[in-house]
Amino acid sequence: MKFFLDTANVPEIREAAALGLCDGVTTNPSLLAREDGDPREIVREIAKICDGPISAEVVGMTAEEMVREGLEWAKVADNVVVKIPMTTEGLKAIRTLSEQGIATNTTLIFQPVQALMAAKSGASMVSPFVGRLDDIQAPGMELIETIRQIFENYDIATEILVASIRSPMHVLDAARIGADIATMPFSVLETLARHPLTDIGIERFLADWEKVKNR
Ligand code: E4P
After folding, report:
1. 94 phi, psi to nearest 5 deg
2. Which atom of ligand 1 is nearest to 55's Cα?
3. What residue's CA is closest to ligand 1, atom 12?
4. Cα-to-centroid distance, 129 and ligand 1 (Å)
5. Residues annotated catalytic, as ranges
6. Is any ligand 1 atom within 6 A of the Cβ of residue 129?
7. How many domains does the chain have?
8. Nearest residue CA, atom 4 of ligand 1?
9. CA of 84 to the centre of ligand 1 (A)
10. Do residues 170 and 187 make contact, with C-beta atoms less than 8 angstroms apart?
């Protein structure tokens, strides 16, 4: 499973890249609004640090506007993937962009047939949002299981990108189900590397080494 960073924060992306754990990045208008500077420049910089797919989202509501914005995003860097919301206008834009060889990520997916429709329109990735479903007491990971099953039934190559991840358990469940990608905040990535018994084990080894090192 690929690990993507769900952030537009350049220092966090640098750190994940240094760990060798940045297979790609997902941004969205809210994440870019949290950072200072021109969003295009931020995405350009991110695309230099991480050579995997970097999602940048359109904000237009008509297919025409989405295609226009998508073509602009695609010029920012070769590894930019155009993120398009799951609407009927979005599906038209996905079709047009994919026919031009531009990779797309369909965002805001909350039910399985939305993912199937996006895949049929030519989406390279689909982004089901697990955390936002959990927030309204709908089991987010069940959506991932169902999409995986549907894509396997029909040999669909579109990648399942688990989005709106809030905890390490979401990442574990995504890997168990066989999702292609998990995009996570940097805080979740850091937490995944930790275990209290690892810390206790290191402390013990260091304490024991103190006893022998001056022999
Ligand atoms: C990623 O592509 C999404 O934009 C992101 O995961 C949404 O996460 P949130 O529900 O925590 O805002």
Report:
1. -60, -45
2. 2
3. 164
4. 7
5. 83
6. yes
7. 1
8. 28
9. 13
10. no
Structural domain including 46 reads: 2-213
User: What is d(CA 50, CA 9) in angstroms, rounded to the nearest whole number?
Assistant: 12
Compute the distance between CA of residue 180 and CA of residue 80 in angstroms, rounded to an integer: 18
**Quick check: 68 and 98 in contact, CB under 8 A?**
no
pLDDT of residue 27: 98
CA of 37 to the centre of ligand 1 (A): 21
Q: Which two tokens stand for residue 84?
A: 């398009």
Question: What does the CA dihedral 95, 152, 111, 141 come to, rounded to 10 degrees?
Answer: -130
Q: What is the CATH number of the domain that holds 19?
A: 3.20.20.70
Three-state DSSP class for residue 78: coil
Q: How far is CA 66 from the centre of its chain?
A: 20
Per-residue pLDDT of the chain (215 residues; tens, 9 = 90+): 999 999 999 999 999 999 999 999 999 999 999 999 999 999 999 999 999 999 999 999 999 999 999 999 999 999 999 999 999 999 999 999 999 999 999 999 999 999 999 999 999 999 999 999 999 999 999 999 999 999 999 999 999 999 999 999 999 999 999 999 999 999 999 999 999 999 999 999 999 999 998 88
